[in-house]
């Protein structure tokens, strides 16, 4: 059923019938994909990409509103009964049937390892709508896509869109990875590069002998000039591990150019402890701000369980009303006074007295 | 007092069921319970998630089936089966799901449908008020006369320490009215009518009442108007089924809850006594102020595991189905410390509750003031 069909099930009568529960509380028991508003999806197929990465082919339910190449979603998955939410870029093109996300093992990380090792066809995922401003630039200008590791995923979606739409757009696809066998979408990228004149694929690997045209090593400004002499004339797009992104940004800044449009997979959040006294007004609990980093952690320490998701300021699931107080944004250290404002608890710490409606 | 406590040296007057313990023993007892709690909480996982999701499914299916059958309520077998299923679902929802979810027992699942911050139960008492009167007041000040509003719900005398008033002469009768309308008693008891104008402002009471009205009118609309109306010509059958299901749920919840704290042998406390109480002493008060019910697995589930009132009061945020598992271990710890572990069958325990209600209807107190 389409999204609007479900919405018909959500009316004053059905809500009164379900009250005080929601209509979804009933629907979900009959089919986990059924909901009057929530996006959920079923894993149709798990495709192994490399030893450390898989692509999940997902069919979302009727509430999915589609995406634009480069956007990501928040994916919630149950592991040992507990729901965990993380952000993943959509690697498929908007025109493809269904959506794919491609997941690479992230160290000891819980969700990425689970998805790589244990995700199975038939599993139900909780999804957000697509979001994000990291998009394929309009027009037909030449592009320079720079990616590293799993950061290839949003750029792959953009490249796939160019291909599906037959946009013969001049693209240099510069990808950094550990080795060739470690590279996501390696076969597809090579096939595309062979087929299309407009696409130049350059890989820089850290291990093993580079193929003709490729390089070995890490990103440097000199290497960029050598590999893509006209890089300054292209619209740059960037996604990869923090170290790579820092180097690329520095190189562009030094060359007097604007830094590339980019997507961060890992947000640097300072772990500085808070200060002051935090009052959780609904539960009547009070805590010293310095006993935790973020307000989210502080609330959890107090035995409160606000909704939360990515815990890095991306998904907005932990947004909560602050009646007043002084908070520090953990992403940039900025301190500000807030009054009657919804803030993301995961990336804010107390910087004085704070009153949170929890 | 049970045999174990009586066997303790009698040279000190046992002011309370734990006064035979030294301060160190009290702390050691608390540490054992802390360790038990930690062990269980660290072990929570898939098994627990599967359990609550199965309960959820059973509840939703029985509710839908019950309400559907009541649409054919003009056929007696359909009416009986429908009412039975709806009663079952209401009992499951209030006891094993609502009460326990709102205690935060399932928050760790991070499932918005089972989150204590947002869950509201199928009961006229609004969830947020319940979390205050029950989770905070009752569980913190358990059996403290004058503070724990569950002691008598403001209308009954259930402790010797409550001063007698003539109205209590009628409590053996209005006890049954409370039982039949238990959800309303639960909804209204936090308003504290007797304190309004004294210590409680009209404005605060009005705010609470408006919350109750907002919730209750939806409940009443749903069960007594909407579903009967949807049944069309079967209006009265559906109405009767819904009234009956709510009544059965009320009687059941009343019986289970009264057996939790008002059986023979449970202790009541005064405010002065608990001043400066340590966490271990809090455990002791929870233990001695609560009593269990014995029965099979289905019985425990239908009571929302409040049949394990003792374990629930020791560990209010532990997923309730674990109480049955740790019960024997709690009992064993109590035995080693010579502490009473009050348990019995529902008929026996409820019999002692009725005895208490009748005895305390009359003036006078059984225990000497030596307890204070
Ligand atoms: C917008 C956006 C898009 C993204 N798109 C993608 C994508 O398309 N594909 C993709 O693969 N990833 C993507 N990511 C990254 C992905 O979200 C992270 O890999 C994911 O959040 C990691 O979750 P996790 O549960 O595996 O790790 P977590 O368990 O959350 O751990 C995070 C990090 O901490 C480390 N860690 C955890 N526990 C320990 C421990 N005990 N000791 C030491 N270190 C530890 C882990 O190694 C990991 O590096 C994206 C991120 C964002 C923000």
Write a structural description.
Chain A has 358 residues and is an alpha/beta fold. Chain A has nine helices and 17 strands. Chain A has helices at 3-8, 12-18, 23-30, 110-118, 152-164, 186-195, 221-227, 242-254, 295-301, and strands at 39-50, 53-60, 72-79, 82-89, 99-104, 124-127, 143-148, 171-177, 199-205, 215-216, 235-240, 261-264, 277-280, 285-288, 319-329, 335-344, 348-356. In chain A, strands 4-3-6-1-2-5 form a six-stranded antiparallel sheet. In chain A, strands 10-9-8-7-11-12 form a six-stranded parallel sheet, sandwiched between helices. In chain A, strand 8 (171-177), helix 6 and strand 9 (199-205) form a beta-alpha-beta unit. The longest helix of chain A has 13 residues, at 152-164. The two termini of chain A are 37 Å apart. Chain B has 372 residues and is an all-alpha fold. Chain B has 14 helices and two strands, in the order ααααααααααβαααβα. Chain B is globular, with a radius of gyration of 21 Å. Residues 1-15 and 368-372 of chain B have low confidence and may be disordered. Chains A and B meet through helix 2, helix 3 and strand 4 of A and helix 3, helix 5 and helix 8 of B.
What would you say about this model in short?
With about 350 residues, chain A is an alpha/beta fold.
List keywords for this structure.
heterodimer; A: 358 residues; alpha/beta; Elongation Factor Tu (Ef-tu), domain 3; Ubiquitin-like (UB roll); 3 domains; 6-stranded antiparallel beta sheet; 17 strands; B: 372 residues; mainly alpha; two-stranded parallel sheet; 14 helices; disordered N terminus; binds flavin-adenine dinucleotide
Tell me the number of helical segments of chain B per DSSP (H or I, 4 or more residues long).
14
Pick out the low-confidence regions of chain B: 1-15, 368-372
The whole-number mean of residue pLDDT values of chain B reads: 91
CATH H-level superfamily title of the largest domain in chain A: Nucleotide-binding domain of ferredoxin-NADP reductase (FNR) module
